Amino acid sequence: MELCISSLDFSYNSKKVLKNVSFCARSGEVLGVIGPNGSGKTTLLKCMRMAVRPQKGKILLDLENVGKWRRQKIAQYFGVVPQSSSITFPFNVLDVVMMGRMPHLSRFQRENKGDVDVVHEAMHLTSIEHLYDRPISKLSGGEFQRVIIARALAQQPKILLLDEPTSQLDINHQFEIMKLIRELARKKDMMVIIISHNLNHSLRYCDNLLLLNDGCVHSCGDAEKVLTTKNIKEVYGVEAELNFNTKIDSYQVTLIDVVD
Fold first, then answer.
1. Which of 5, 120, 148, 183 has the lowest tally of Cβ within 10 angstroms?
2. Which class is 2-218 in CATH?
3. How far is CA 160 from CA 135, 148, 192, 235, in A?
4. How confident is the model at residue 63 (pLDDT cuts 50, 70, 90)?
5. What does the pLDDT read at residue 109?
6. pTM higher than 0.85 for the full model?
7. Per-chain mean pLDDT for the chain
8. CA distances from 128 to 98, 163, 175 (A)
9. Alpha helices by DSSP H, the chain
């Protein structure tokens, strides 16, 4: 499966946020969306799933125009893990993950055994089966984030969109979530598109990167070819070094100083 964004423009009132954005992503791969604050990353994810509609351009999934789909069909194809989630009602973990089945149910239709099986698989993939009856308010940050990912997986999406899923987590939970995301792409042949500010996570766990700057595509392609010292300097205004770490089989970025 291939998702192609073609010549995408989006504006909030008179402020142009995305400018002629084009790129493609494929099943089984992790695409990292990186760039400074205000470069249009979150807006781009919203456009992909038609939470906001672009003024120009197309979102094509296997040549089908997503902009012409009904909301329910979009929700069946796109699973979303937002930058922050809040659940105020006293649901338990199983209830929250079951919410992911809503796009597959008609109005007033109740879940059946098939829906329960899908939910249990999502909980297994995210290693939260043991939390099934725990109140959502009693979870740690890492556990809560796994529940939100499981809820998205319960939709059985073809594409998983994640907006900075590790930004509020401790270091150990950051590694757990990034490993999980990469495994999902491989095991489930899922297309994963993730916004991240962590350049080292992006290099280590993403197959390809989309580098945005001021709403434009600065560079797109293989992670190691996009995240170069030259691009880091041009986009972030920071001097950096890249060195290969044999222990993790990946390049790592060392940020040195702000460019004078």
1. 183
2. alpha beta
3. 25, 12, 5, 26
4. very high
5. 75
6. yes
7. 92
8. 13, 21, 16
9. 41-48, 71-77, 93-98, 113-125, 141-153, 171-187, 199-205, 223-226, 229-236
